[in-house]
From TrEMBL:
Its main location: membrane. Residues 2-104 form the SecD export protein N-terminal TM domain. Keywords: Cell membrane, Membrane, Protein transport, Translocation, Transmembrane, Transmembrane helix, Transport. GO terms for molecular function: protein-transporting ATPase activity. The chain crosses the membrane at residues 455-472, 479-501, 507-529, 550-571, 583-606. Residues 305-433 form the SecDF P1 head subdomain domain. GO terms for biological process: intracellular protein transmembrane transport; protein targeting; protein transport by the Sec complex. It holds the Pfam family SecD_SecF_C. Forms a complex with SecF. Part of the essential Sec protein translocation apparatus which comprises SecA, SecYEG and auxiliary proteins SecDF-YajC and YidC. This is Protein translocase subunit SecD. PANTHER family: PROTEIN TRANSLOCASE SUBUNIT SECD, PROTEIN-EXPORT MEMBRANE PROTEIN SEC. Residues 230-287 form the Protein translocase subunit SecDF P1 domain.
Length: 616
């Protein structure tokens, strides 16, 4: 019989629509405006009296508090009105002082029964939800200097193996300088080093006492180091951001030495900067013996005990670059520690160094690159200059009891939070060069709310225009198409929520475009039905022929658009990807609703009935 579906097909359509309805529902519960309080030391230490005082202060300022919730290492205060967020943040900041970080946030309000089904609202992009935008600059000079220091250490090791005497070594700019007892030692060292390090230009230097050797790295090698530095920093930053669990972050290169990082939904800028901008690394060094020459040692203080120090060897056994995995844990006394696994090369170097130095102390050195700004007068104008500096501190100094291999642990950490952040930094990889914050911009949730409101208005206007056109043009069949259009929008929202896709302003544009394109298939079908009716075909045959003959054209038109959307997604970034995602999903859902849902409704209304005329 024409225009009849089997029962299983009706049930399939019903199940898909019900699932779509359930998983689109969380988007009807907008996030609550909130203020998040955390400590700049990682551990939140607010007592009950302080919390009550904050609530009283907010109430006195006529700021309506919806609820106060404790979270790991933070306190979340939900508000009823978004326009009171900034006032609440400022008031709390004044009350608590500089020891706490007070940030704007958006707290999800999805009902528990939906959360139990793993239903959650769509992730919102930076332009809709707010977040932070960082512009970072890679210190290329520091990247070259770090590589030269590693090369200098390797050169000294080679000279010691061959028992070639040298007095000192120094890195200055792009040059390594070494002094020797006489010209004979200098010439022997030059032959040895030049074979292992061909990327240097070598120059003999005459000294009043002894002989010198100057080694300048080539321009090609400097360019290679700089390219490696920014590419490695990009990889490391992406790993760190992925560890933070931020939805749809943007990490991309800008120009020769800058990187853009955008983190949607992150309002705690202090925490974001602490993870993204951390240039920390580790070095494992042996403690110097009493008879070690001064030029081969370096005195460092302990990170947690500034008044205590130790003399360490300048040569590094391994650095954080050799760490393959790291995770936080606790020792037998319940104190925080970091469990470390090394890669093959790192494990070999560690085993070689500890096997021959049992009973000697080994230090774990924490290195962090920082900057401070100072205002200077240039040409009669005040100019802010950034001065980089490096802090080195000993985390732990322990006696080597036996030869170490690929796995060991670091103790002596202040808190579980510090251990967690250190393990995250080691896991994601160390930065090949220091990075500095050139620009920092926070997009508040209030601006995102305005964008959402305008985006929803555009969707509503577009939907209304399409609905009116279909009703006027196709009457009863237009009403069926409009119901399918509502289902299409529901399925699109549900699909984006289930897949964790991020909605951005360009994504809303893609939804508006999808609404217009969603009725294209119905227009083709309904016009074909009209043609068949005008040619004298019966109602049931015309409906059947309309759907059958328009099918190929609908598939061809939507597949070509889908291919374009896939190409946009594969080569585009940021906003372009957001547009491509909504367009692709919209095409798939519109094909389902246009070909199956409308056909099912038409079959239920008109199928199997002896009709002589229909409203189309």
């Amino acid at each position: 019989m024409l225009n009849r579906y089997p029962l299983w097909k009706y049930l399939l359509i019903l199940v898909v629509l019900l699932v779509g309805l359930v998983y689109s529902l969380p988007n009807l519960f907008p996030a609550d405006p909130a203020v998040q309080i955390s400590s700049d030391r990682g551990e939140l230490t607010l007592d009950e009296s302080q919390r009550m005082g904050l609530e009283d202060a907010l109430s006195a300022a006529n700021i309506e508090v919806k609820s106060v919730e404790e979270e790991p290492n933070s306190l979340l205060i939900r508000l009823r009105k978004a326009d009171q967020q900034i006032n609440a943040r400022d008031l709390i900041s004044q009350s608590l002082g500089e020891d706490y970080v007070v940030a704007l946030n958006q707290a999800e309000s999805t009902p528990d029964w939906l959360s139990s089904l793993s239903a959650s609202p769509m992730s919102l992009g930076l332009d809709l939800r707010g977040g932070v935008h960082f512009l970072l600059e890679v210190d290329m000079d520091a990247a070259v200097k770090q590589r030269l220091e590693v090369n200098a250490s390797a050169m000294r090791e080679s000279l010691r193996k061959e028992r070639i005497r040298y007095r000192n070594s120094e890195v200055d700019g792009d040059t390594i300088s070494m002094d020797f007892m006489d010209a004979e030692d200098r010439d022997t060292a030059r032959q040895l080093i030049s074979r292992e390090f061909p990327n240097f230009q070598y120059l003999n230097v005459e000294r009043e006492r002894g002989a010198g050797l100057s080694m300048t790295i080539s321009e090609a090698a400097i360019k290679e180091i700089q390219d490696y530095a920014i590419n490695q920093n990009l990889t490391t930053l992406r790993n760190r951001v992925n560890e933070l669990g931020v939805a749809e972050p943007l990490v991309q290169r800008q120009g020769p030495d800058r990187i853009v990082v955008e983190l949607p939904g992150v309002q705690d800028t202090a925490a974001a900067k602490r993870i993204v901008g951390a240039t920390a690394n580790l070095e494992f060094r042996l403690e110097a013996r009493p008879d070690t020459p001064d030029n081969e040692t370096e005195s460092l203080s302990f990170r947690n005990e500034p008044n205590r120090s130790a003399d360490l060897m300048r040569d590094v056994i391994i650095s954080g670059d050799s760490v393959s995995s790291a995770n936080r844990g606790f020792d037998e006394n319940g104190r925080p520690q970091v469990n470390i696994n090394l890669d093959g090369t790192g494990g070999t170097l560690m085993n070689r160094a500890t096997r021959t130095n049992i009973g000697r102390n080994m230090a774990v050195v924490f290195i962090e690159h920082k900057t401070h700004d100072r205002t200077v007068i240039k040409d009669g104008k005040e100019v802010v200059e950034r001065e980089p500096y490096t802090e080195r501190g000993i985390i732990s100094l322990a006696t080597i009891q036996s030869a170490l291999g690929n796995s060991f642990r670091i103790t002596g950490l202040d808190s579980p939070t510090e251990a967690g952040e250190l393990s995250l930094l080691l896991r994601s990889g160390s930065l090949a060069a220091p990075i500095y914050f050139v620009q920092e911009r926070t997009i508040g949730p209030s601006l995102g709310a305005d964008n959402i409101e305008r985006g929803l208005l555009s969707v509503q206007v577009g939907l209304l225009l399409v609905v009116l056109f279909m009703l006027i043009r196709y009457k009863a069949f237009g009403l069926i198409a409009n119901v399918a259009l509502a289902f299409n929008l529901t399925l699109l929202v549900a699909a984006m929520s289930l897949l964790g896709a991020t909605l951005t302003l360009p994504g809303i544009a893609g939804i508006v475009l999808t609404l217009g394109m969603a009725v294209d298939a119905n227009v083709l079908i309904f016009e074909r039905i009209r043609e068949e009716l005008r040619s004298g075909m019966s109602v049931q045959q015309a409906i059947h022929a309309g759907y059958e003959k328009a099918f190929t054209s609908i598939i061809d038109a939507n597949l070509t658009t889908l291919l374009v959307a896939v190409i946009l997604f594969s080569i585009g970034t940021g906003p372009v990807k957001g547009f491509a995602v909504t367009l692709s999903l919209g095409i798939l859902t519109s094909m389902f609703t246009a070909l199956l849902v409308t056909r099912g409704m038409v079959n239920l209304v008109y199928g199997g009935r002896p009709l002589k005329k229909i409203w189309i």
